[in-house]
Amino acid sequence: MIHHCCRSSYFPREHYSVPENNRIPHLLSCNSPTRFTSRRFESIKPDKQLDYVNDNGGPQEYIDIVLSSLRSDTVKLRHAKKLQMFDLRRFMILSAVRETVLNFPGGIVKFTQELKFLSESTERIPCYRVLDDRGQLLSNNCMQIDKNIALKMYKDMVMLQTMDAIFYEAQRQGRISFYVTSIGEEAINIASAAALTIDDFVFPQYREAGVQLWRGFTLQDFADQCFGNTLDNGKGRQMPAHYGSKKHNYITVASTVGTQVLHAVGAAYSLKMEGKDACTITYFGDGGSSTGDFHAALNFAAVMEAPVILFCRNNGWAISTPVTDQFRSDGVVVRGQAYGVRSIRVDGNDALAVFNAVQVARKIAINESKPVLIEALTYRAGHHSTSDDSSKYRPIKDIEWWRLAQDPVARFRKWLEGDDWWDSQAESELREATRKEVLHAIQVAEKIEKPGLHEIFSDVYDVPPSNLSHQENSLREAVKKHQQDYPPDVPF
């Protein structure tokens, strides 16, 4: 809409409140129209605009607004009295106000005569925690969790832990080409997934297999993807451990670092436009927060108020680069505040803390239509991938300490046992059954035929272009000529 400032206008009789962001009209009357852009969503409410002071209206009510906004008090706008010869008084008062504040786009800024820079470092942000290292509750004020949910969380954490160990061994045996483990990060996977719903879209990195596991992706599905057989959703085109499932609203993993953060924010904005009762969540590591995509996504999410949970797994290492070499700030959580995003730091090895944080973050994202940044402090107790040897760049004793003393699965088990929800017999039965299930899935997956050669060139174009057809023909000729160089189990 277009608001015109006219010299004969008066303040309306209705009451107004100073907006929370302390925005007030410019201190000068205007001679040209001021344009306001309408906002699409109800959650984004533009400031109420007040008519500017004019020669026929008294300035006192307007001055009250200015002064009261500096005190952050709520004021009421009364009907202005007609005053004569007011120009000089208005000039003097508004000049005095300008001496103390700057009415800059975005809100009132106070002036100061003190030459003081913002500190480059502050006291470290505390870390939210519910369970101590022994699995004991630190407070009775934490959220209650259903017994069945808690037991499923533990069983899935054990399943993820077992799957990682056996798939890692399968890669070392040459049965699959690549694998990524989540050792030490099981709580982040399972507990965060438990706090979401199936309608929420997941934009993962490559260390969130547990989120898929919680949502119903079976062990056989995992094995089929890692072996790249005909039952693989990606038809063997993706690297192992790069899962995806439309059924489970789990966007296919990409090897590129940080790109999924932007995608998650855009999808969240789309959900908001459609009025869906859902949000998106994206997972990334401390290394991902060092990319340009992370900063662009955070700013976009804040400005457009996208219902997205930005979940950072700060596990101390971006492959071989420690966090001390990545940024000077206090981790990642402080970056949220800089962009205007509500943020929290959580103990990533505490399943209950992660569950509580994500559950509340989801409510904020959906009910308030606001983004939330969660930094989970954990430790990558395994290698970055099967292509990495972390003992080359960090002490083995540190790895072993985190693997044993800070194991999130063991901590959660102690809490379950303390509530008499679990015992040693149930533990033995679960571990044995889980190992058999994983081994069986692998044995089945490696016997299934690989996708045909034509699958490389399908699913993109309805009618393949001539250059793509030429590439396929060239590949087939090369295979016929050098059959000994190609795997025998791939149908050509």
Layout of SSEs?
Blueprint lengths: L1 E2 L30 E2 L24 H11 L16 H12 L2 E4 L2 E4 L36 H26 L13 H9 L6 E3 L5 H7 L3 H9 L31 H16 L5 E6 L6 H13 L3 E7 L2 E2 L2 E2 L10 H7 L2 E6 L3 H17 L4 E6 L18 H10 L2 H11 L5 H22 L20 H16 L11
Parallel strand pairs: 5-6, 6-7, 7-11, 10-11
Antiparallel strand pairs: 1-2, 3-4, 8-9
Describe, in plain words, how this protein is organized in 3D:
- This protein has three domains: 1-116, no CATH class; 147-445, Rossmann fold, CATH 3.40.50; 459-485.
- 34% of the residues are buried.
- The chain is 38% helix and 9% strand.
- The chain is built from 14 helices and eleven strands.
- A five-stranded parallel beta sheet has the order 5-6-7-11-10, sandwiched between helices.
- Helix 8 links the parallel strand 6 and strand 7 (308-314).
- It is of the alpha/beta class and 492 residues long.
- GO terms for molecular function: branched-chain 2-oxo acid dehydrogenase activity; metal ion binding.
- It is an enzyme of class 1 (oxidoreductase).
- It catalyses: N(6)-[(R)-lipoyl]-L-lysyl-[protein] + 3-methyl-2-oxobutanoate + H(+) = N(6)-[(R)-S(8)-2-methylpropanoyldihydrolipoyl]-L-lysyl-[protein] + CO2.
- It comes from Dorcoceras hygrometricum.
